[in-house]
Amino acid sequence: MEAEEQSEWGPKAWAYLSSVRKQSPLIQCITNFVSMDLTANTLLSAGASPAMLHSSNEIPDFTPQVHALYINVGTLSDNWLPAMKLAAELASKSNKPWVLDPVAAGASSFRLRACLDLISLKPTVIRGNASEIMALANASVGSTKGVDSSHESIDAVEAAKCLANSSGAVVAVSGAVDFVTDGKRVVGARNGVPMMQKITATGCAVTALIAAFVAVDQSQALEATASALAVFGVAGEMGMEIAKGPASLRMHLIDSLHGLDQSAVISRVKITTS
Ligand SMILES: Nc1ncnc2c1ncn2[C@@H]1O[C@H](COP(=O)(O)OP(=O)(O)O)[C@@H](O)[C@H]1O
Ligand SMILES: Cc1ncsc1CCOP(=O)(O)O
Ligand SMILES: [Mg+2]
């Protein structure tokens, strides 16, 4: 049964990547300064079209035109938060999917409150590391190491289910295994290499890739999210075959994502029902 289920995910992940390449969805990214470059290049190498627009003055014109919105609170400041909320409201009103990356959600009460307020605006998907998802599910500050996780992804599966149920979003916890849940079903994407944690903003970049996958099929957010995480992981695995360290992995990961073909995706994607 498990092998049968697994064999369906490769073609599914390939279908999502092919649709992104064909449709080239426009993804508005309101993201942190650290991640802007890697995020835009990840989206471009997957075939999507990134646009880093965050002014409240242009969001009313621009956000209703995009195929998906990505909000990331990594370098949150007072004046960006209203723009994030405005964009999230407009995306929801225009029936466009939007995806939240709650970077360091438990690092301060300002950040935690901001993330919880954004979650009340109904994101389609929330993707964080284990510490971030636990902070959100418990609505508590602390037990975090800044933007990095001090927990394993497996430790946050129950928190992810609670958050999915309370928010209505699909919730993904990244780590050695990337778990994705809608509150009932849980799937695990088992691709990637540990060295991906040594490149800043790989988490931010994969959340943007989730936005691109959800943009081409809003109706199955869990499937799109698991596929994006697995595809990014496969690109990391292939990149690691020639990389010498984090800096060259960053380059080879983007090259691999750009060059992924059907046979690599189908043979390498490892997604199982946990
Ligand atoms: N130990 C690991 N093995 C394989 N892949 C990993 C590992 N840790 C993280 N990744 C991958 O690295 C990317 C970033 O995840 P993570 O480091 O958890 O996010 P963040 O940077 O937000 O903390 C994801 O694609 C994830 O699957
Ligand atoms: C280092 C840092 N500081 C604020 S945002 C950021 C990037 C975090 O990226 P990721 O969560 O993908 O590791
Ligand atoms: Mg992160």
TrEMBL record:
KW Kinase (keyword) present: yes
Cofactor: Mg(2+)
Pathway the protein takes part in: Cofactor biosynthesis; thiamine diphosphate biosynthesis; 4-methyl-5-(2-phosphoethyl)-thiazole from 5-(2-hydroxyethyl)-4-methylthiazole: step 1/1
BP GO terms, sorted: thiamine diphosphate biosynthetic process; thiamine salvage
UniProt keyword ATP-binding, yes or no: yes
Enzyme class: transferase
Catalysed transformations (reactions): 5-(2-hydroxyethyl)-4-methylthiazole + ATP = 4-methyl-5-(2-phosphooxyethyl)-thiazole + ADP + H(+)
EC numbers on record: 2.7.1.50
SUPFAM superfamilies: Ribokinase-like
A Pfam entry, by short name: HK
Molecular-function GO term, any one: ATP binding
Keywords: ATP-binding, Kinase, Magnesium, Metal-binding, Nucleotide-binding, Thiamine biosynthesis, Transferase
Source species, domain of life: Eukaryota
Gene3D superfamilies: 3.40.1190.20
Protein function: Thiazole kinase involved in thiamine salvage pathway.
Family, per entry: Belongs to the Thz kinase family.
HAMAP family: Thz_kinase (MF_00228)
NCBIfam families with a match to the protein in the record: PRK09355.1, thiM
Protein name per Swiss-Prot or TrEMBL: Hydroxyethylthiazole kinase
